[in-house]
């Protein structure tokens, strides 16, 4: 749920300082041009893409319903719009990210962690688009196995790995890679003790070769078992494709070890389950065109901060470029391996104990209207009580007003407890 009014940013300077309100909403651009685009789309529109667009357009509008809260003393009223909760919605995915990152922080090992990016060659893009779930699952497995195998052989330990899939680059072109948070150490396979890796050096050539070999072996398996959709004429054609992949330099980027949880959580928040385009990066919506900021890594000097540039796209180019990144239904874009897998049970003494309870929002593009100050009466300084929900029926002039039983039950429990 999203509040109709934005809270006062001055009352939250601890983590919203220097954050400016959004100037543009993605929903406004969809409302202006989506119906026109959908008549003659540039690319085929999938059911997931239609659903994502409809959700974004309806999010935080009366179409999804409004909860009404009121102060029991002075009667001050707040209206709270329902959110769509779609993974591709910029605001809803942001709130999901905050909850997810805060939860993950409490499960992390008391060790330094490293941010790793593992990228597939662009030659694979067509094959991936035709076999999304199969090959993206293979990417998750290959990237995590690469580090698990290396740490087992080199240090005899099992690490903890958090992997998040991204299919986009800075300008929202197709660019398939995974961001991983890898514990720089783990559980010793012999003693069961928690051990830290002291050195930062890794053999990049070994990691790249391991990553490439695991993924290509899976491609060979899929082709031999006729599991992939492809345009290869015969086995020889497929083998030539694999040979070209083997000659490519597969990219692995590895950051220095960082302490937990504050610095790590910044990476988790920045590279997690958020929608691919932050509305804070939209710089202009004018007529049929939309512009947004991006970081130009190609022209940046190694070790220096990349230059920020702006790109302008017509809606007929922008919509298909953006929507190609809508997640496949029920596909998990965040996964856990090694010590962090759901099957793993870690001793409490191995986890980071001195948990920081404040949320580290200042490093993100924070939406000011997610804070629940609207439910605190500014006159009486007490929490407002839920009154009813208003829902307008689609394609009719009727409006339903009802009380949500779950919220009412929660209020009754709180009242009895007091």
Provide a brief overview of the structure.
This protein is of the alpha+beta class. The chain has helices at 13-16, 26-39, 47-58, 90-105, 125-130, 132-155, 204-224, 235-247, 262-270, 315-323, 405-417; strands at residues 2-3, 66-70, 77-81, 113-119, 157-158, 160-168, 174-183, 185-188, 194-196, 251-254, 282-286, 289-296, 307-314, 334-338, 385-392, 399-402.
Query: What top-tier CATH class of the largest domain fits best?
Result: Alpha Beta
Question: Element order, helices and strands?
Answer: EHHHEEHEHHEEEEEHHEHEEEHEEEH
| Share in β-strands | 15-25%
Tell the overall outline.
globular
Low-confidence stretches: 1-19, 357-371
Number of strands: 16
How many helix segments?
11
Helix-strand makeup class = alpha+beta
Major beta-sheet overview = 5 strands, antiparallel
Terminal CA distance: 26 Å
Task: Classify the helix fraction into a percent range.
Answer: 25-40%
Instruction: Report the mean per-residue pLDDT as an integer.
Output: 84
Main sheet: strand order:
1-3-2-15-16
Q: What is the fold named in CATH at topology level of the largest domain?
A: Replication Protein E1, Chain: A
Write up this protein.
The structure is a single chain. With 418 residues, the chain is of the alpha+beta class. The protein folds into two domains: 2-86 and 368-417, no CATH class; 98-276 and 325-358, 3-Layer(aba) Sandwich (Replication Protein E1, Chain: A). Helices cover 34% and strands 21% of the residues. The protein contains eleven helices and 16 strands. The protein has helices at residues 13-16, 26-39, 47-58, 90-105, 125-130, 132-155, 204-224, 235-247, 262-270, 315-323, 405-417; strands at residues 2-3, 66-70, 77-81, 113-119, 157-158, 160-168, 174-183, 185-188, 194-196, 251-254, 282-286, 289-296, 307-314, 334-338, 385-392, 399-402. It has a five-stranded antiparallel sheet, covered by helices on one side. Strands 10-4-7-6-14 form a five-stranded antiparallel sheet, with helices on both faces. Strand 2 and strand 3 form a beta hairpin. Helix 2 crosses helix 3, helix 4 runs antiparallel to helix 9 (262-270) and helix 7 runs antiparallel to helix 8. The longest helix is centred in the middle third of the chain and has 24 residues, at 132-155. It is globular and about 65 Å long.
């Amino acid at each position: 749920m999203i509040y109709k009014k934005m809270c006062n940013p001055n009352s939250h300077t601890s983590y919203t300082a220097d954050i400016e309100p959004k100037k543009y909403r993605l929903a406004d651009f969809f409302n202006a041009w989506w119906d026109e685009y959908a008549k003659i789309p540039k690319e085929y529109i999938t059911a997931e893409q239609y659903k994502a667009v409809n959700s974004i357009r309806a999010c935080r509008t009366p179409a999804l319903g409004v909860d009404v809260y009121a102060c029991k003393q002075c009667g001050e009223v707040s209206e709270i719009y329902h959110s769509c909760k779609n993974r591709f919605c910029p605001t809803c995915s942001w709130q999901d990210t905050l909850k997810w990152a805060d939860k993950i922080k409490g499960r992390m090992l008391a060790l330094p962690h490293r941010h790793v990016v593992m990228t597939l060659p662009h030659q694979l893009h067509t094959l991936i688009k035709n076999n999304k779930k199969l090959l993206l699952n293979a990417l998750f497995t290959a990237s995590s196995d690469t580090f698990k195998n290396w740490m087992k052989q080199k240090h005899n330990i099992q690490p903890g790995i958090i992997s998040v899939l991204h299919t986009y680059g800075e300008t929202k072109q197709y660019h398939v890679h995974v961001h991983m948070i890898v514990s720089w150490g783990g559980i010793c396979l012999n003693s069961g003790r928690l051990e830290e890796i002291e050195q930062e050096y890794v053999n990049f050539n070994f990691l790249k070769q391991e990553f490439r070999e695991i993924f290509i072996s899976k491609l060979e398996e899929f082709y031999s078992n006729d599991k992939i959709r492809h345009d290869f004429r015969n086995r020889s054609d497929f083998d030539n494709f694999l040979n070209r992949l083997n000659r490519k330099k597969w990219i692995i980027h590895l950051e220095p070890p960082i302490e937990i949880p504050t610095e790590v959580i910044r990476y988790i928040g920045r590279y997690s389950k958020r929608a691919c385009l932050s509305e804070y990066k939209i710089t202009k919506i004018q007529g049929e065109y939309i512009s947004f900021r991006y970081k130009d890594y190609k022209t940046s000097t190694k070790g220096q901060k990349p230059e920020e540039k702006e790109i302008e796209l017509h809606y007929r180019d922008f919509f298909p470029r953006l929507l190609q990144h809508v997640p496949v239904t029920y596909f998990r874009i965040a996964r856990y391996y090694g010590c962090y897998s759901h099957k793993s049970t870690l001793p409490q003494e191995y986890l980071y104990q001195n948990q920081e309870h404040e949320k580290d929002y200042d490093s993100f593009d924070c939406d000011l209207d997610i804070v629940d100050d609207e439910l605190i009466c500014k006159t009486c300084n007490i929490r407002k009580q839920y009154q009813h929900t208003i829902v307008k029926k689609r394609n009719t002039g009727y409006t339903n007003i009802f009380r949500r039983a779950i919220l009412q039950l929660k209020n009754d429990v709180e009242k009895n407890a007091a």
